[in-house]
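Q: What structure does this chain adopt?
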Amino acid sequence: MATETLSMGKALNAGLRRALDDDPKVVIMGEDVGKLGGVFRITDGLQKDFGGDRVIDTPLAESGIIGTAVGLAIRGYRPVCEIQFDGFVYPAYDQIVSQVAKMHYRSRGKLSLPIVIRIPFGGGIGAVEHHSESPEAYFAHTAGLKVVSCSSPQDAYTMIRQSIASDDPVVFLEPKRRYWEKGPVDTEADYPLHASRVVRPGTDATILAYGPMVRTALDAAAAAAEDGRDLEVVDLRTLSPLDLAAVYDSVRRTGRCVVVHEAPSNVGLGAEIAARVTEKCFYSLEAPVLRVAGFDTPYPASRVEEDYLPDLDRVLDAVDRTFGW
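A:
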C-alpha cells in the first residue's frame, strides 16, 4: 500500500498523471491547462512531461472544446476537458446535452463517448461573478450523462482515474474551495465510482451531502457531538446515477434526514433525494426530510457569500427542527 498526504489539487494532478501514463489515448484539453497548469494548477507539469499533443492549450471557446472532444472520442481517444470555472460551462451546454449525452443512444450503442468534463464548482473563494456556480442539477437531469463529485483527496485521486477509464461521459465536479485541504491518499485503493459512502457513523439523524458540503456536514456533526447528539454523515459522491442504498439504510436507523448542498433549493438535487427517501423510508421517518441549500437567487457578490452558503449553524438548525425544536 502506497499512502501519502496530498491536497485535493495535488491528488487530482497525480490521478491525471497516472491516467496519462496508463493509456496513450488519454488527452487533456482546456484553457491554460498546458504551460500555466490551469488556473488552480491542477494540470501543473503535465504538458512539460507528456507534451503539447496530449495536454493541449485550447482557445477560449468552451463549445469548441467539447465539440472537439466529441470528435476525438469517436476516433478512439479519451479526452479530459477542463472547464476553467463553473460559470463558463454554459456556452458548452448545447454540446454536452445534445451531443455528448445522446450519441450512444442515437447510434444504438455503436458509438461511445468516453469524455470527462472537469468543472471546478461552488463558492467560498471570494471570486467574482460567474466563478461560483453550482450547475450540477442541469447535468444530473440529463439522461446519458454520469455526474460525480469528489470531497476528499482520496476520492479525487481515485474517482478521476475511474471516470477517465469509464466508457460513459462523466461530468466531474471538483469543489474548488477544497483544493487546498490535505488528506491521506492510498494510490492503490479502489472503491466503486457510483456509490455513496458513510463517512461518519451516527445514530440520531442522517446528514446527506456531496462535494464541498461534506466537510461542512462533518463539522456540524462534530459540533453536535459536543451537545450529545450523534449524527451520521453520508457522502453521496455520485449524483447521476444516485446511489441511495446506504442512505435508505441510514435513514431507517436514524429516522431523520437533512440534505445539504450549495445550489439553490428550488428543483435542486435535494428535492429529488428528499422525494426518494420519503418514498422508501416513509414508515421509518420521525420528521420530514429537510433541505439546507443556497438561496433561490443568483450567486451574490463575494463580500456577502458567507451569508449565502450553507454553514454549520444552518445545518444544525435543520437537525434541531427534525427533532421538533
